[in-house]
Structure formats: structure tokens, C-alpha cells
Specification:
- The protein has helices at about 10-35, 45-60, 75-95, 105-130, 145-155, 190-195, 215-225, 230-240, 250-255, 265-300, 350-355, 365-370, 385-390, 410-415, 420-435, 440-455, and strands at about 1-5, 10, 140-145, 165-170, 185, 200-205, 230, 305-310, 320-325, 375, 405.
- By secondary structure, the protein is α/β, with parallel strands linked by helices.
């Protein structure tokens, strides 16, 4: 089951896991306080809640609560241990710098970190190994049997199918059959009877052509009996975090929630970009200077360090995006725009390093401060690619209704790719972001970007 909070869907079992983790951290602090200090004191409440919040944020940043997480036991143990020790060390430093809270010995902090790591990991093991798969899952019936209906059964990723259990397809009158015959239900019986018999929680309307014999009366009966009715595009958006092009109708874009651009949203977004951009520029300036020196040492004092490349921004407005140069100066000597490839032979030795750890993206902080870009948004593409992709991919230009970003929903959800098919897959995520973006969603994406950078994943 998915729950919607601040325009974004959350997987309920993972929300429960995070809540249990938070309670266990509070319990560990109380237990250690009772053992080491002879009791729990009132002045520990706020520091304990702060520690729990901090650990949960770092765990989220390391992908522990991600639906797309595929790490096995060793990988998850490393994530939890690193998150717990980093959070505890940060809280210990804050305690040492705060006069009323200096009584927090280092040995206590180490014991707290070790105990929390063990408890949190054991809880995750119990959750991953013994949590019933069908818990909180909705039993869904697909109304339709054509290509749109088949797209639900063809969802390949396990994370896209965790929140529901498909109980069957109810064939619409005169519709083709593109689904497994053994899953067809109905046999001429009323829809409501089938819904009651199969204990259906939700009916997904997935007819290929709704203009023909749309079952208004049958669906209304189900809705009045307490069964949820949902349209296939909204269903796939909820379950996959994408807006799927193959089932998308313009009317859905027009009448659906989202796509808001109110004044308060623009002010808070721009304020966050300016504040975070200024802080990160100051923090990363030494790293940019070292990178500048490394590029000069490899390519000579006369070699350029900053690389300017025209990209398409909000409302199709072109701008010059800045990057640390990671390729040879003659990378496009023939004048033909090329996508960067994995293990591209045009990259320099320094370039391979700075691309892996994303240092080459740091000059884009200036683009953020200037207002060309935001921290979060669809990745800006070159005009040549935009023209070509817009001619072949429907709704491609709709991704330009928001500012492009240094990171984004597509970058953390989809691996690196440089083909037209990759552009289509990333567009699914970009449209989801354009529809649902807000400051909270941006902060969540920034948090998850830590995992992309730290474990060298995604498509930044």
C-alpha cells in the first residue's frame, strides 16, 4: 500500500520500518542511560529525539528506506553502521560544543553507536526476511484486457509490484485480449459480483478505448459499495513513481492534480537555492581549487579548466552550463554533439576521477546562483538533442516547465544512459517530478542523492 504525503507516495511497510527504528533508538538511549547513569533524565529528551531524527535522515540518505534498494545483508550492514556511527559522532560533537551538555563521554558515544547499529540492523533483518509480502498490499482487479491492461502485468521491477496483488482482469466488451487467459475473470457475470467474490480493494480502469461502452453503471456500483476506482495512469504513477507515456492521455495531464506554480512555491524554491548554493560554494571552494590545479598539471597551464556548454533551460530558454572539464579539448573536434558514454575514451585521467565523484558538477552552483538552474530538476540537455528527442518522443518539451537541476528524480531512479530509449525512460521520471515537485520533494531527492554519489549510482 502507498500513502500520499505532501504530493509524494510512500511505501507503507518502509514507513513502519522507519517508525520502529526511531522507537528503537529512543529505547536504546533510555536503556543505556539507565545502566550508565542510573536513570533517565528529562534533559535527555530533546537530544534523544534529535539523535533519532538525525540517524533516520542519514539512513534515508544511504538508501535504507528506498523501495529500489537491492543491497543484501553485507551491503545493508555497511550502510546502517556508517549511518549510525556518522550520526552519533555528529551529535557527540554538538554535545561537546554545547555548554549544558558537555557531560557526554566519548566512550558513551561509541557504546551508543555500536548498540544502535546492532539493534537497527537486526530490526532490518527481521523486516526483510520475515515481513509478509502481502501485508498492506491492495487486491486489485484490472478492468480491461488490452495493451494498457497488460502494461500492469508486465511491470518488471519487483519494487513496482510490492504494494498490490493482481487478482485478475475483467475483459471490457469488444476489447482484445493481451493478458494471460488464466487471469481473465467475469464470464458474463456483473462486475460487482466478481469484486465481492475476489475480495477486491481497488478496480483499475485500463481500457484501451474508453469511448466505446464505458461501464459507468458497473463502476458506480463498485464505488458506492466502498471499492476504490482508479485510472491506470494514476495507478502507475502511484506504484512506480513515473508518468508512463504508453498509457498517457492529454486529458489526464489537464485534469490531474499537480503542476502548481504558485508564488509561495517559487519564493521558497528560489530562497533555498540561493542559501544552499552560497553555503555549498564556500564549502566546496577548496575542492574546486585542487581540481583546477590537477587539470592544469595534466593538460598544461594553458588548458581550460571550466567547460561551457549550451543547454536548454526552463521554457526552452538556452543557457551556458558550467562544468569542470573532464574530456580532452578536442572531444568534439568534428563539431557533432555526442552523448557522453560509459568509460568514454575522450575523458582525461583527472576527468575519470572527478566524474566518478561528481566534482565536475560543482561549477553548476554558479548556474544555480544565477537562476539558470535549481538544485533539483530534470537534467538539462543540449539543444541538438532536445530538438531531435522532441520530434520523436511525445511530451518531451513538457519537462522544461520547471528549471533544470544539478540532481533530480530521474537521476536517482534511473542508471546512467545515453540513448533515445534511455531518454524515454528518464522522461517518465521527469514528468512525475514536474507534476509533483515541491520543497519537501526536493529535499527528499537531495537526501537520496547522497546514496547516488557515495555508492556511485544513478545518472548524475
Amino acid at each position: 500500500m502507498q500513502i500520499k504525503v505532501l504530493s509524494h507516495y510512500w511505501h507503507l511497510p518502509l514507513v513502519v520500518l522507519a517508525a520502529v527504528h526511531a522507537l528503537s533508538i529512543v529505547a536504546v538511549v533510555a536503556l543505556l542511560s539507565a545502566v550508565l547513569r542510573g536513570g533517565v533524565h528529562a534533559d535527555q529528551l530533546l537530544p534523544t529525539l534529535g539523535l533519532a531524527t538525525f540517524i533516520l535522515l542519514v539512513l534515508s540518505a544511504f538508501g535504507v528506506y528506498s523501495r529500489r534498494q537491492r543491497s543484501r545483508l553485507p551491503g545493508m550492514l555497511m550502510r546502517i553502521v556508517l549511518a549510525t556511527f556518522f550520526s552519533t559522532a555528529a551529535v557527540w560533537v554538538i554535545h561537546r560544543l554545547s555548554a549544558p551538555l558537555q557531560g557526554f563521554p566519548l566512550i558513551d558515544a561509541m557504546l551508543l553507536a555500536i548498540t544502535c547499529a546492532i539493534v537497527l540492523f537486526l530490526i532490518w533483518v527481521v523486516y526483510s526476511q520475515f515481513w509478509p509480502v502481502d501485508t498492506f498490499s491492495k487486491r486489485i482487479l484490472i478492468f480491461g484486457s488490452g495493451a494498457h491492461a497488460a502494461s500492469i502485468g508486465n511491470l518488471r521491477r519487483r519494487s513496482d509490484r510490492r504494494s498490490f496483488k493482481l487478482v485478475g482482469y475483467f475483459r471490457a466488451e469488444g476489447e482484445a485480449v493481451n493478458v494471460p487467459q488464466e487471469l481473465l475473470v467475469g464470464g458474463g457475470r456483473p462486475l460487482l459480483d466478481i469484486v465481492d467474490e475476489l475480495d477486491v480493494d481497488e478496480v483499475v480502469v485500463a481500457m484501451d478505448d474508453r469511448r466505446r461502452a464505458f461501464p459507468v453503471a458497473a463502476l458506480l456500483e463498485c464505488r458506492l459499495s466502498g471499492v476504490d476506482i482508479i485510472e491506470i495512469t494514476t495507478f502507475l504513477e502511484r506504484e512506480t513513481g513515473r508518468v508512463m507515456l504508453d498509457v498517457l492521455h492529454p486529458s489526464w495531464l489537464i485534469f490531474s492534480e499537480g503542476f502548481r506554480r504558485d508564488m509561495m512555491r517559487r519564493i521558497t524554491r528560489r530562497g533555498f537555492d540561493l542559501l544552499a548554493g552560497a553555503v555549498l560554494t564556500l564549502v566546496t571552494l577548496p575542492l574546486m581549487v585542487l581540481t583546477w590545479i590537477a587539470i592544469k598539471c595534466e593538460d598544461g597551464l594553458g588548458a581550460p579548466v571550466i567547460y561551457k556548454q549550451q543547454r536548454v533551460g526552463m521554457l526552452d530558454k538556452p543557457f551556458n552550463m558550467l562544468k569542470m572539464r573532464s574530456m580532452r579539448t578536442d572531444a568534439e573536434k568534428d563539431g557533432v554533439a555526442q552523448w557522453a558514454r560509459k568509460d568514454d575514451d575522450r575523458m582525461t585521467r583527472v576527468g575519470r576521477v572527478i566524474r566518478k565523484i561528481r566534482i565536475d558538477e560543482l561549477p553548476q552552483l554558479w548556474n544555480v546562483l544565477r537562476g539558470d538552474m535549481s538544485f533539483v530538476g530534470p537534467r538539462p540537455e543540449r539543444p541538438e538533442f532536445v530538438s531531435r528527442l522532441s520530434a520523436t518522443i511525445p511530451y518531451y518539451r513538457e519537462r522544461h516547465w520547471v528549471k533544470p537541476g544539478i540532481t533530480g528524480w530521474a537521476q536517482i531512479c534511473y542508471p546512467y544512459g545515453a540513448t533515445e530509449q534511455d531518454a524515454i525512460e528518464k522522461l517518465h521520471y521527469d514528468l512525475y517530478y514536474v507534476k509533483n515537485h515541491n520543497l519537501f520533494f526536493d529535499l527528499m531527492i537531495l537526501l537520496q542523492t547522497v546514496e547516488v554519489v557515495f555508492w556511485r549510482k544513478g545518472a548524475l
